[in-house]
Predict the structure of Filamentation induced by cAMP protein Fic.
Amino acid sequence: MKKELNTFHTGRYLLNAETSTDLSIINELLNVFHRMPLFPETITELQDNALAKAIFAEAKIEENPVTFEQVCRIMIHSRDNFSQDQSSIEVCNILAAHKLLDEKLSEKLTPEIISSVHNELIASMANIKEPDGSYRKGGIKADEKWISVPYTPPASTLDINFLIKQLLDWIENDLPSLNPIIKATLLHLHIKKIQPYSNANGHTARLLEIWYLKKNRIKILPYILPQIYNSRKEDYYKCISEFYASSDIQPFLHFIMDSLKDTVSSVRDANFAAMASVISDSRLAKMYENKTLIKRQYDFLCMIKESGASFQQEDLQLRKPYTKMYGNVSRTTVARDIKKYEDMGLIVLTKDGYVFKTDII
């Protein structure tokens, strides 16, 4: 998982995917956003204006002054409507890059894909040194605001071309079993470190991370990450700086896990609850169909499942809405039904009273 490269002019360059850190949250991200079917209601907030939020965050990372409302307005207009304002052009270009990458999800990871997204990102922008999107000619100095260790990216086009090809080959061929979220992160960080172009390297690196996640059918996460990078910009750049110095991915993974641990837990738990509700509905319907439950019992169980409220045995004959089903039956019938529900694992007694048991399997 570690590969040392010797460039033609720059010297040693390290590709390193080794980690000793606990990756449980990264693995849970893969489980929740890739393997698990997600109920729409559990991710409504995350999905709402997801692309616009991601584009806004991506623009803000690079200090674009646009507001979210302006981004939403720009997105509904043709790219041709913006020819002067560089802030609006940048937003248009990020949107165009997203659309381009969506068209290329079936393609392999190649240098041409990287160049094509970069070309979209620099279209109509001012002060572009290589307007044809070719690799940088000559050295540049990494000058991120929060950089802690001086770093100079590879200076020659020959080295850049070599490193990009080696990086893609390493990710695709040497790391076949590695979590694709980590591979997307490696793609992001190394493109950022190599800085193959004179402009828009950050946008290019983060857009390629999004593309790789989408290509591997990872939902929601591609739109969340730019928002995290923007909201915790100082932490983001500190991790980038550490990566420049060491090629160690672990600080960046810790940053992602710390940022997403609450989100992934919330989505997972809400999704399991929705899944349990569907399973409960199916089981109750089957019991009613095969006459294990009569209509009174079926209606009552459906009601307490939906309400989630607790109840006491005596409530069934004294309180609405339970009296609709149990107001005209004997206490013996009530007690018999309660025991039946308990024996079937459909209700459970808690300190607050009986509740519907959602974990019925």
Notes: The chain has two domains: 2-269, 293-356. The domain at 2-269 is CATH 1.10.3290.10 (Fic-like fold). The beta strands are 2-6, 12-16, 347-350, 353-356.
